[in-house]
What does this fold into?
Amino acid sequence: MSAPLLAVDDLQKTFPAAGGAMVRAVNGVSFRLDAGETLALVGESGSGKTTIGRCVLGLLPITAGQITFRGHAIRGRASIREAWFRGRLQIVFQEPAEALDPRFTIGASIEEPLRALGLADRASRVEEAARRVGLSAASLDARPGELSAGTLQRAGIARAIASRPEIIVLDEPTSALDPTSRAEVVDLLQRLQAEMGTAYLFISHDLSTVHHLSDRIAVLYLGAIVEQGRGADVFGRSRHPYSLGLLQSVLLPDPGQPRGSALALQGEIPSPIDLPPGCFLASRCPFAEPRCRAERPLPLDLGGGHQVACFRQEHVLRETAVTDRFAAFQRHAERLLGQD
Amino acid sequence: MTPALSIQGLNVAYPAYGGRSVEAVRGLDLEVGAGEIMALVGEMGCGKTTLARAIMGALKPPGRITAGSIRLGGQDLARLGEAEFRKLRGRDLAMIVPNPRSELDPMRPVGEQIAAVLRAHLGLTRKPARERALATLEAVRIPDPVRRYNAYPHELSGGMAQRVVIAIALACEPRFIISDDATSGLDVTVQAQILDLLARLVSEQRTSMLYITRDIGVAAHFCTRIAVMHRGEVVETADRDAFFSAPRHPYSATLLAAFAHSPALRARWTRPDASAEIPERGCRFALRCVRAMERCATDAPALSVLAPGHAVRCHAPIRHMAVPA
It folds into this structure.
């Protein structure tokens, strides 16, 4: 088997908090990202997904574990300055308006990282990136304040692809957009991946978009992966109570498809300063038994790369009927809106 | 039955360059019945927050109401002065906004903030106000209310802070509540809990709610009726089930198609030459509409009733075959 493009092994990241306490943001996370594929990191606030993205980009020093990109270690800012990394890793932010300097034209903003990386033939790279994302010459001359959120996100994507990266960290790239511009940006990201073979690490809490865009999905809770695997496994055959609770909380625009209530997660996410000794979900989980509160479950491989970290996964399988709700909604919408 | 809130022909305008004005809300008709939760769904900049502010008497100057009426009970809110609004807000009319922490006084225990509203509006003295505030904290399912009464906002999680904001809004059992994207900042598992809570409180207190959101999925599961807003106008309004089983306006179809992530539907409901401009004449959706006809460029459609309770602003509403259940 060839080496993966990106390998993250037992990653840990802590931040100091007031009074000498530690915020344990990432607690032993391992995953692979292969060339040209999309891996989604999903979870709620405090799940550590954004911190993992920052560690992969070398923006944060890691506390323990290992991140390697084609065998080159990423441990923080110093490691990423190595010439080998130049332009190979990029990011698209949630708020395109914040990623673009309001005083610069869009064209200058796309060029700026190329200048910082010391890359040659900048004009032709900007032109190529703009053409790929469908930005007009007029948009390149405009300033951020003059353009819509959807067009700004196209510019944010152009800025990321201009250095022809191998990996792009997409940090909630569609969360600030309206549904119609969100659909356009998703189409664009898919087309660019097909054309350029870029791998995406797609950080999102929008499970509907994740379902559509991702090859594989890792579900995070309090800085640990509770379940990961192919989209069809994680969304269609979920075995972890948290993945199920998350999926059942999604409200799709079809009242005929009731949201599940069988697995309502109680209460809220515990503090990452004061993590429980056993499974992090035990306090909210309807299936928890004494062992779950004492011991932390390790990921169990169910085949085909589908991993679940739960002592009760067989019980969960017996007790819950999982269907792929996103696929069901797509069929419903096609029936409803496909004719007239 | 008289509706709880009735808006007729409402215009809200902001002055623009060259003596012109931008109509953020235009000719808007909307009725919310007693006990109803009306979803108001629309994209950024469609005027939904402007509408909420107009109802609350809190338009940001220089925006102002230039035509129409907003009837709540016997009063026309469009003609109410600030002094009268002060008596109304908090007591008969309340609003919940998305960022709970910005709504709370950081220097004051949350229970006291609820009690202060009760003392100001209902004239309760200290002790009954405290007791009712505690009952309200219990009603919004805050665990251990006696202890939380003395907590400061920063000591609460986002979900708990949002519950406190809801408790303040509901403390006086207002006749009408507006929620402006109030659950959008919350995590989905917490959002589900808060929506269930709001639905229960609305039904227990027999109040009515206008639930403003960008998320048509929330509207489908949480509301009894829906109004779709586009560029300052209501383009479709219907009972929830009628809307989701047979949406009639092309813009409603576009919104639903965007959620389905279906390439076939996207192709069908997206115009490659769509323009974000608002045309001077005709239908405001015409330049984005896959069904636009010649007439749409010149002739603005009126909101017309196609079936009881189902109205659409379109010259060529979508026809549906019988949809299998």
